[in-house]
Each structure stands twice: as C-alpha cells, then as structure tokens.
Amino acid sequence: MDCPYCNYHDSRVIDSRDVNDGIRRRRQCLKCDSRFTTYERLQPVSLFVIKKDQRREEFNRDKLLSGIRKACEKRPLPSGAVDKVADDIEAGLFSSGRVEIPTTAIGDMVMARLQALDHIAYIRFASVYRDFTDITALKEEVDALVTGEPGISRSSSQLPLLSAEKLEELAENPPKRGGNQEQLNLN
Ligand SMILES: [Zn+2]
C-alpha cells in the first residue's frame, strides 16, 4: 500500500486490530511519517464495471461466464476450462484492488485468454465484443490469428454458387461431407 501523501511504497504498522470482517491497520509512512489507515478484507465489498455508454453496473461473474460460454459453445475444450477463464479473470479483477473497471478492459482480458485457448471461441467472442461492422474487419482479425500459425488450413466459409440443375442432382445424390467445418479445429 503506497503512502497516500507521498506515494512512497513502504510503511510500518503501528496498530492492528480486527474489525467486523477484516483487519484495520494504522500505518506510518517510512518516508514522510504521515499516518494512514488500511483495511484488509477477504474481498472488496463490490466491484463495478463501467460500460461503453458510461453506465455503472456491479460486476457479475455469471454474466462474464455466460459470455465466455457462448463463445466456447460446442468447442472441444477440456472440462472446467471455461470456468477457469472466468475464475482467473475474476481473481485478477479483485486482486487489482480497483473498485471500478471498464468493460473494455474485461473484454481484453477475455480475448487474451481465449486466443490462447481456442481460436474459434476467440473469433466468436471478438465478433460480439469488437462489434465488427463489416466482414473485412472480421477477416483481418482471422488473418492476424492465422498468420504465424503454420499448419492451419484455411477453409472458405463461402459455398460455391450452384446452378439449379446441379442442386437437383445434389438432392438426389448427396455428396459425402468431408467435415469441412472442422478444418479450423486447432486442437
Ligand atoms: Zn509518505
């Protein structure tokens, strides 16, 4: 805890006592001798997130978790991986000692973890969070992911345009699907 008067990083405890659900400590700065009080608790009373429109809302782990879950839906992830991402982020937020944090900062934390975990989940999350306005921005994000990742085949999401005759033929003799969707499976 830095001194609130001179920001010096060290202080000595001159008094310590239990209060309610925590410990109150009277401290004296080793540099300027100012006295100040700190309270140590298991967890901050609350943490608020500041949304893009500046609205303030209490941090909600379930919301964070459901956002990550949605992005990771049906991805072949080890069990508990999604909860761990949420746990790590929550722990990071509370241990930061901040009482307010912008949603954009939390979004960045999720992005960083998903990028390391699963690229499809990352892109899904990014498409919501970054609010891509057009396919070009999304493509740039995908390209950035794929660059430097040798061995990953790029599959086109576009189906070839087929003539009506070809479609009828296909309806009668459906081709065997080769699992084209799974080409970007990075696990
Ligand atoms: Zn000081």
Describe the structure.
This protein is an alpha+beta fold. Among the domains are: 11-41, no CATH class; 48-146. The chain is 40% helix and 18% strand. It is built from six helices and six strands; from the N terminus they run E-E-E-E-E-H-H-E-H-H-H-H. The chain has helices at 61-72, 81-95, 103-117, 119-129, 135-146, 164-172, and strands at 11-19, 22-29, 35-41, 48-50, 56-58, 100-102. The strands form two sheets. A three-stranded antiparallel beta sheet has the order 1-2-3, with no helix packed on it. Strands 5-4-6 form a three-stranded mixed beta sheet. A hairpin with a 2-residue loop joins strand 1 and strand 2. Helix 2 (81-95) runs antiparallel to helix 3 (103-117). The radius of gyration is 25 Å and the shape is elongated. The two termini are 43 Å apart. The model is unreliable at 150-163 and 176-187 (pLDDT under 50). The structure holds zinc ion. Zinc ion (ZN) is lined by residues 3, 5-6, 8, 29, 31-32, 34.
